[in-house]
């Protein structure tokens, strides 16, 4: 600090003025960022309320349609699922080249890996080709949310040098998927569960889920789930949720 009556060098004056200017600039940037984060959090909160209302209305409408069909002496056929959850239950031993390539396309490279798959004719045929190595079905909202929150990791970085980062904050999601209107984990869950227009980008952003061996184990990996002997591989439909709950 300069003493009273002692002249301050011009260079020091310039440095002090520069530091004051930079400090003011940093303060304004910090305030602007705080306002932006607050606005994003509020918007995400409002969208979350909207999603909850949407899920509730969908569930109530489904119950209403089932009751109406039952009252008329018929039955209501649920709409076809848009998303499949597939889990690999067998390793690499005695694996032919074609199933190996399909499993690689599905990103099911390791035992107990799980991924979401969009339902269409091509994916259904591919699933049939690798049925003895996987089990799959239709996930509920609870299963999707628990997988993303408890076992969710982001795949970030350049192709060939991706990093696996834990989904601990909405900032990671907003940074990589913000251009698609996905700014938080709840947006990500909604996009996956409803199979939205940016399902592909949201699904590729997620690293394949690494699950544990199921509590109480498997029944028989040699036999299919729909066989009379009741095995494990194949289409479980809604019962996939019970298995995944034991693997999370």
TrEMBL record:
The organism of origin for this protein: Neospora caninum (strain Liverpool)
Presence of keyword Nucleotide-binding: no
PROSITE patterns xref list: RIBOSOMAL_L30 (PS00634)
GO molecular function: RNA binding; structural constituent of ribosome
A cellular component term, taken from the record's GO annotations: cytosolic large ribosomal subunit
Family classification: Belongs to the universal ribosomal protein uL30 family.
An example Gene Ontology biological process: maturation of LSU-rRNA from tricistronic rRNA transcript (SSU-rRNA, 5.8S rRNA, LSU-rRNA)
A Pfam family recorded for this sequence: Ribosomal_L30
The protein, known as: 60S ribosomal protein L7
SUPFAM superfamilies the UniProt entry points to: Ribosomal protein L30p/L7e (SSF55129)
Ranges for domain Large ribosomal subunit protein uL30-like ferredoxin-like fold: 86-134
Domain Large ribosomal subunit protein uL30 N-terminal eukaryotes: 8-78
